Amino acid sequence: MTTGRHESAPRALGIDLGGSKIEALLLDAENREHWRERVPTPGAGYDAILDAIVALVRRAEDASALPFTLGLGTPGSLTPEGLLKNSNTTCLNGRALQRDLQERLQTPLVIANDANCLALSEATDGAGAGAEVVFAAILGTGVGAGIAVHGRVLRGVNGLAGEWGHNPLPWAVVGEDPAPSCYCGQAGCIETLLSGPALARDHEAHTGRRLGAEAIAAAAGAGDVASQATLERHASRLARALAGVINLLDPDVIVLGGGLSRIAQLYERVPALWSRWVFSGGHRDPVRTRLLPARHGDASGVRGAAWIGRRYGAARALDARLEGPESGAVTPAG
Ligand SMILES: [Zn+2]
Fold this sequence. Notes:
With 334 residues, the protein is α/β, with parallel strands linked by helices.
């Protein structure tokens, strides 16, 4: 069986290309999971990553008796020349990822921003279903976000809407200087302070112990005071970063995805803290924005990628600024 350009293909393969793993999910016509596989992202460079994606698509073909469309979500976006920019997997930047994969696979492929895929999935039937404005943030190897308004993803004229991970963390407190430098060329970016590696680095700097984010959360839950303090510092940083989002966008719902979204303590602590920085003019007006984990968990981004691939699986115009269920136009990234 081959993948193919089938505008009416009932099946949709989504691929989520992240900094630490590549996940593939094949959905049937009713959006039920037909096949799924996850592999580590190769560290050996661009060609190794292409090889891994091609191998996943071939295994999906083996698992499917029917053709499918193909959508890939990844950090960053495509330039007008079709080159990927702003990926934290920096070997992808400046590369013609879409063209190179299409050549190898001999099938059309749609590329979208991974956080936009999360926003679409969660705004459609997830934690943000029915909300007017959804801000969906991925807190993982890197930090990115997407914005959905009335169920449609806002892409932006530069493909940048939601790229809050490379704004500076606001309202710095003692101990946060000097600001860590970022691969993007700036220093003090939200990503450098709120990613999974940032949480682990902060814990190590304060305790001398090297633990992953989930181990720190587990230790905090078991009563380890140092781990609780690490999570409290992290909650403060996330609360300040999201207060900036609330002041700018005022979303109904903020959805968290990525590995750090599994830290249950954040959903209580962050909303307890953020009103200190949300603009209220001194009034005690409660912040009505809700902070929620992605309802579809780890699968949410790859699900959104599959939908975007299905919706825009044919080679139509590439200039839409909105991507959503009914927009009828293609956007390659954002
Ligand atoms: Zn940066």
